[in-house]
Amino acid sequence: MTVNHKIVFLGESSVGKSSLVIRFVKRKFSPYQEPTIGAAFLSKKLTHNNVHFKLQIWDTAGQERYHSLAPMYYRGSSAAFVIYDVTQKVTFEKSKKWIDELKKLGDPNVQIAFVANKIDLAENQKVSREIGQNFADENGLTFFETSAKTGKNVDKLFLQMLDKLPKN
Ligand code: GDP
Ligand code: MG
Protein backbone atom coordinates (compact mmCIF):
# COMPACT_ATOMS: atom_id res chain seq x y z
CA MET A 1 0.00 0.00 0.00
CA THR A 2 1.21 3.49 -0.84
CA VAL A 3 0.47 6.53 1.28
CA ASN A 4 -0.07 9.73 -0.72
CA HIS A 5 0.70 13.14 0.66
CA LYS A 6 0.55 16.61 -0.80
CA ILE A 7 3.36 18.84 0.42
CA VAL A 8 3.82 22.56 -0.22
CA PHE A 9 6.85 24.84 -0.06
CA LEU A 10 6.15 28.48 0.78
CA GLY A 11 8.34 31.52 1.35
CA GLU A 12 9.72 34.64 -0.32
CA SER A 13 11.43 34.22 -3.68
CA SER A 14 15.08 33.14 -3.68
CA VAL A 15 15.10 31.75 -0.15
CA GLY A 16 15.92 28.32 -1.62
CA LYS A 17 12.58 26.52 -1.89
CA SER A 18 13.35 24.97 -5.28
CA SER A 19 16.90 24.19 -4.20
CA LEU A 20 15.69 22.29 -1.11
CA VAL A 21 13.18 20.29 -3.15
CA ILE A 22 15.74 19.49 -5.83
CA ARG A 23 18.39 18.58 -3.25
CA PHE A 24 15.98 16.08 -1.70
CA VAL A 25 14.41 14.68 -4.88
CA LYS A 26 17.40 14.75 -7.25
CA ARG A 27 20.32 14.83 -4.78
CA LYS A 28 21.94 17.85 -6.44
CA PHE A 29 22.39 21.60 -6.09
CA SER A 30 22.76 24.37 -8.65
CA PRO A 31 24.14 27.82 -7.77
CA TYR A 32 22.19 29.03 -10.83
CA GLN A 33 18.79 27.64 -9.89
CA GLU A 34 16.19 29.27 -12.17
CA PRO A 35 13.37 31.25 -10.58
CA THR A 36 10.13 29.29 -10.39
CA ILE A 37 7.25 30.61 -12.50
CA GLY A 38 3.90 30.13 -10.76
CA ALA A 39 4.68 26.78 -9.21
CA ALA A 40 6.60 23.60 -10.01
CA PHE A 41 5.42 20.09 -9.27
CA LEU A 42 7.67 17.18 -8.39
CA SER A 43 6.67 13.72 -7.39
CA LYS A 44 8.82 11.50 -5.20
CA LYS A 45 8.32 7.91 -4.12
CA LEU A 46 10.22 6.62 -1.12
CA THR A 47 10.02 4.03 1.61
CA HIS A 48 10.62 5.21 5.15
CA ASN A 49 10.26 2.99 8.22
CA ASN A 50 8.58 0.35 6.03
CA VAL A 51 5.93 2.77 4.78
CA HIS A 52 5.73 3.45 1.04
CA PHE A 53 5.13 7.12 0.44
CA LYS A 54 4.24 8.97 -2.73
CA LEU A 55 4.82 12.67 -2.23
CA GLN A 56 3.30 15.30 -4.46
CA ILE A 57 5.52 18.29 -3.84
CA TRP A 58 4.36 21.76 -4.84
CA ASP A 59 7.20 24.24 -5.05
CA THR A 60 5.62 27.70 -5.24
CA ALA A 61 7.08 30.88 -6.72
CA GLY A 62 6.92 33.15 -3.69
CA GLN A 63 6.50 36.44 -5.55
CA GLU A 64 3.66 38.66 -4.43
CA ARG A 65 2.06 38.62 -7.87
CA TYR A 66 1.47 34.87 -7.51
CA HIS A 67 0.09 35.17 -4.00
CA SER A 68 -3.53 34.62 -5.05
CA LEU A 69 -2.54 31.19 -6.42
CA ALA A 70 -1.02 29.99 -3.15
CA PRO A 71 -4.25 28.55 -1.64
CA MET A 72 -4.46 26.10 -4.55
CA TYR A 73 -1.17 24.66 -3.41
CA TYR A 74 -1.57 24.64 0.35
CA ARG A 75 -5.21 23.51 0.44
CA GLY A 76 -5.31 19.79 0.91
CA SER A 77 -1.62 19.71 1.85
CA SER A 78 -0.74 17.47 4.78
CA ALA A 79 2.58 19.23 5.21
CA ALA A 80 3.87 22.74 4.62
CA PHE A 81 7.47 23.88 4.69
CA VAL A 82 7.83 27.61 5.25
CA ILE A 83 11.30 28.77 4.30
CA TYR A 84 13.33 31.88 4.99
CA ASP A 85 16.89 32.84 4.12
CA VAL A 86 19.03 33.50 7.21
CA THR A 87 20.93 36.20 5.30
CA GLN A 88 17.80 38.24 4.41
CA LYS A 89 15.77 39.59 7.30
CA VAL A 90 12.79 40.53 5.10
CA THR A 91 12.36 36.88 4.16
CA PHE A 92 11.98 36.02 7.85
CA GLU A 93 9.23 38.65 8.22
CA LYS A 94 7.51 37.25 5.14
CA SER A 95 7.74 33.70 6.45
CA LYS A 96 5.83 34.75 9.59
CA LYS A 97 3.02 35.99 7.33
CA TRP A 98 2.91 32.62 5.57
CA ILE A 99 2.56 30.90 8.94
CA ASP A 100 -0.38 33.17 9.84
CA GLU A 101 -2.05 32.48 6.51
CA LEU A 102 -1.57 28.72 6.80
CA LYS A 103 -3.00 28.69 10.30
CA LYS A 104 -6.02 30.68 9.16
CA LEU A 105 -6.70 29.11 5.78
CA GLY A 106 -4.75 25.84 5.62
CA ASP A 107 -6.14 22.44 6.57
CA PRO A 108 -6.65 22.18 10.33
CA ASN A 109 -4.29 19.19 10.51
CA VAL A 110 -1.53 20.60 8.33
CA GLN A 111 1.91 19.92 9.80
CA ILE A 112 4.14 22.95 9.47
CA ALA A 113 7.92 23.07 9.55
CA PHE A 114 9.67 26.42 9.86
CA VAL A 115 12.94 26.37 7.95
CA ALA A 116 15.99 28.64 8.18
CA ASN A 117 17.88 27.98 4.93
CA LYS A 118 21.36 28.96 3.68
CA ILE A 119 23.07 28.30 7.01
CA ASP A 120 26.27 27.64 5.04
CA LEU A 121 26.44 31.45 4.68
CA ALA A 122 27.03 31.87 8.42
CA GLU A 123 29.27 34.90 7.96
CA ASN A 124 26.31 36.78 6.40
CA GLN A 125 23.69 35.51 8.84
CA LYS A 126 21.20 38.27 9.78
CA VAL A 127 18.53 36.20 11.54
CA SER A 128 19.93 34.28 14.49
CA ARG A 129 19.00 30.73 15.33
CA GLU A 130 17.44 31.95 18.60
CA ILE A 131 15.06 34.29 16.81
CA GLY A 132 13.93 31.55 14.43
CA GLN A 133 13.65 28.94 17.16
CA ASN A 134 11.67 31.30 19.43
CA PHE A 135 9.17 32.10 16.72
CA ALA A 136 8.78 28.39 15.97
CA ASP A 137 8.31 27.53 19.66
CA GLU A 138 5.73 30.27 20.17
CA ASN A 139 3.77 28.94 17.22
CA GLY A 140 4.12 25.22 17.90
CA LEU A 141 6.18 24.60 14.76
CA THR A 142 9.17 22.36 14.27
CA PHE A 143 12.29 24.34 13.40
CA PHE A 144 15.14 23.31 11.11
CA GLU A 145 18.33 24.97 9.98
CA THR A 146 19.21 23.77 6.49
CA SER A 147 21.55 24.28 3.60
CA ALA A 148 20.42 23.16 0.17
CA LYS A 149 24.00 23.83 -0.90
CA THR A 150 25.74 21.43 1.50
CA GLY A 151 22.66 19.24 2.03
CA LYS A 152 22.75 19.83 5.77
CA ASN A 153 19.51 18.68 7.47
CA VAL A 154 17.65 18.36 4.15
CA ASP A 155 16.86 14.64 4.49
CA LYS A 156 16.08 15.15 8.16
CA LEU A 157 13.63 17.90 7.26
CA PHE A 158 11.63 15.57 5.02
CA LEU A 159 11.96 12.38 7.04
CA GLN A 160 10.96 13.93 10.37
CA MET A 161 7.94 15.36 8.60
CA LEU A 162 7.01 11.93 7.21
CA ASP A 163 7.16 10.55 10.76
CA LYS A 164 4.39 12.99 11.71
CA LEU A 165 2.08 12.36 8.76
CA PRO A 166 -0.78 9.85 8.72
CA LYS A 167 0.27 6.40 7.45
CA ASN A 168 -3.03 5.58 5.76
P1 GDP B 1 13.41 29.90 -4.49
O1 GDP B 1 13.05 31.13 -5.28
O2 GDP B 1 12.94 30.02 -3.07
O3 GDP B 1 12.95 28.65 -5.14
O4 GDP B 1 15.01 29.86 -4.39
P2 GDP B 1 16.02 29.05 -5.31
O5 GDP B 1 16.03 27.62 -4.95
O6 GDP B 1 15.76 29.40 -6.75
O7 GDP B 1 17.41 29.66 -4.83
C1 GDP B 1 17.73 31.04 -5.00
C2 GDP B 1 19.24 31.19 -5.04
O8 GDP B 1 19.81 30.84 -3.77
C3 GDP B 1 19.92 30.29 -6.08
O9 GDP B 1 21.01 30.99 -6.63
C4 GDP B 1 20.39 29.11 -5.24
O10 GDP B 1 21.51 28.49 -5.82
C5 GDP B 1 20.74 29.79 -3.93
N1 GDP B 1 20.58 28.89 -2.76
C6 GDP B 1 19.50 28.13 -2.45
N2 GDP B 1 19.70 27.46 -1.30
C7 GDP B 1 20.93 27.80 -0.87
C8 GDP B 1 21.72 27.43 0.27
O11 GDP B 1 21.33 26.65 1.15
N3 GDP B 1 22.96 28.02 0.37
C9 GDP B 1 23.44 28.89 -0.55
N4 GDP B 1 24.66 29.39 -0.36
N5 GDP B 1 22.73 29.26 -1.64
C10 GDP B 1 21.49 28.72 -1.80
MG1 MG C 1 11.81 28.44 -6.85
Rg is 15 Å
Strand arrangement in the largest pleated sheet: 2-3-1-4-5-6
Quote the beta fraction.
25-35%
Could you tell me the mean pLDDT?
A: 96
Query: How is the biggest beta sheet arranged?
Result: 6 strands, mixed
Structure explained in plain terms:
The chain has 168 residues and is of the alpha/beta class. Helices cover 32% and strands 28% of the residues. A six-stranded mixed β-sheet has the order 2-3-1-4-5-6, sandwiched between helices. A hairpin with a 2-residue loop joins strand 2 and strand 3. The longest helix is centred in the middle third of the chain and has 17 residues, at 89-105. It is globular. The model has no long low-confidence stretch (mean pLDDT 96). GO terms for molecular function: GTP binding; GTPase activity. It comes from Anaeramoeba flamelloides. This is Ras-related protein rab-5c.
